[in-house]
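Please decode residue identities from the backbone states below.
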């Protein structure tokens, strides 16, 4: 059984519902991501993922590559 960890990312550039949906779709398209909850109001994404398939640097780099700078926050 695969382990699941939760990553909390502060995400800059979330300005509207469209950005929120775009970031969620981008994150959930990554192999190993089970679920992503993105909030414009909070300015963050909470991602449940298999750490053997994806880790925080991959999540951060993926968002940065599409114009949403992010950083890992401690839970």
């Amino acid at each position: 059984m695969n382990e699941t960890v939760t990553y909390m990312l502060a995400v800059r550039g979330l300005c509207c519902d469209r950005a929120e949906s775009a970031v969620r779709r981008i994150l959930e398209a990554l192999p190993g991501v089970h679920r992503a909850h993105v909030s414009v109001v909070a300015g963050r994404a909470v991602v449940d993922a298999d750490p053997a398939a994806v880790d925080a640097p991959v999540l951060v780099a993926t968002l940065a590559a599409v114009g949403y700078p992010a950083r890992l926050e401690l839970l």
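Observation: The first strand starts at residue 5 and ends at 11.
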